[in-house]
Amino acid sequence: MDLKFSGPVEPYPPYTPPSRCEPGERPGARSFAAWVLEHVGGDDWGIARACPADGLATSAHHEGRAWDWHPPSRAVAFALIECLLASEGDEPHAIARRAGIHNIIYWERIWSASRPGWAAYRHGPASSDTMAHRDHVHFEFSPAGATASTSFYRAIGAAPEPRQGPHHSLGAAQQTVPAVRTPIPPAELRQVLAEAHRAELGAQPSAHRLRIAWAMVNHETGNTASMWNHNVGNIACTRGWPVCHALKVRDPEREPVRYRSYESAEHGARDWWRLMAGRYDKALERFDAGDVDGAALALKERGYYGQAHYLYADALDRHAVRYDKLFGAPSSAPSPLSALLVLGFTGGALWGLSSV
What we know:
Blueprint: H1 27-39, E1 43-44, E2 66-70, H2 74-84, H3 94-98, E3 101-106, E4 109-112, E5 117-120, E6 137-141, H4 143-146, H5 151-156, E7 175-177, H6 186-201, H7 207-220, E8 243-247, E9 257-260, H8 265-278, H9 281-288, H10 292-301, H11 309-327, H12 336-344
Parallel strand pairs: 7-8
Antiparallel strand pairs: 1-2, 2-6, 3-4, 3-6, 4-5, 8-9
């Protein structure tokens, strides 16, 4: 990582809060991610994040100017951070300033350029590894850093090609097909979710699980009016996924956001169950208990969404009440078999999310 910089070290960047949700990847964040992955290794946990249901930006991820990195080890993470915060002559924190980094969050601590130094990171009462940032490092960039307008990016060269969606890994390409709305009537969605669960996880979902899953899908897709190409859960493109579709964002200067495309609603639902049973298995346990608030909290702890927990829980509850009116409230006990299948499922996460 022998970098040759030209010009003086930039001043500490002021904090710029997120102002609107336009999920695309800024070139500076993309270049920084490529540089770290090439020279240090680790896993890419994504730059952009899909907009919350209320459309309000709560994280720099929603503006494409934050990157989450899963390091090879804790020691490697601290070594990179030490490199970024080392002095260049009399200038402290030189590379971080040259890269336009405003925040670094790792292992329950936050470094901020506004008040240079470390402080305890408050992540709420829940202390999951993701919320506490023990399993990844969060890098947040100033507008200048995000647009690759500072000296770090002149030293490392041109930005890599745009990546294929909010959680896409570097360098892979997919076939892009037109985006077509594929709404599903309420009863058909319920049937599709049940059949896909049986096909993917080998058992009938419990009544409570099916109810909250139906509520969650309706919330994420605007009662399926915003379901495109049978993507039941609005799952973004990841490396190796063959066919995707692009949805334009409001700002014409931002890149379109790309999501997975499926042959049918059942294929989309099977992929959604696979994702849920991998990274979000703790949430499914709360599904089986009929605990809407607990399910929302478990999803929040694993970084599924960025808005306030109570807002997401309220939205799920509204859709669950609608489910009860259409199909009747569940009366059966949670299925032990379904719970065991989730706990024993080893498919793993398809992509990593977190928000700050």
